[in-house]
Amino acid sequence: MQTLISNARYWLAIAVMATTCTAFAGDKTIPGHLVKTPPTEHSGLTVSGKNALELGKQIPALDGYQVRVRTVTMAPGGIVKDHGHKSRPGAFYVVKGNVTEIRGDKRAQITPGQVVLENYGTQHWVINNSKEDAVLFVFDIVPTQ
Question: 96 near 135, Cβ under 8 Å?
C-alpha cells in the first residue's frame, strides 16, 4: 500500500506540474450554517471532459486504478460537498475564478494558477463564493470502475 501511495504521489506531481502551495487564510464570506455543518450534496456544478487512463500497464503496482481528469465549472454559490481522499489522492487547479477550500475550521482562498493537493488525510469541501463562474481542472487516482 505504501508503494501504491508513493507511486500515486509521483504521478500526481507530474500530472499537475505545479508547485504553488496554498496557505490557509481567514474568509468570513462562508454562510454560517455551512461552517457549522459542512454540505453533504454538490450544487451548482457542471462536469465535462471526463477522461480516464488505466494505470496498471504503465505502473504494475497501480493495477486496478485509473487516473481520472475532469473540468468542473462552479457557478456562483456552487459547492463541492464535504468529502475525503483516503482511497483516492488527487489535486485541483484553478483555471478561472476564485474558490474557498474548507478543511475543518481552516479556510484557503484559491485563485487562478493555484493547486490544491489532496492526500489520504484530506477531508474538505469547496465553495465558489464569488459572483463569477470558477473553472477547476480536477485530477485524481481512483479504483477502476
Answer: yes
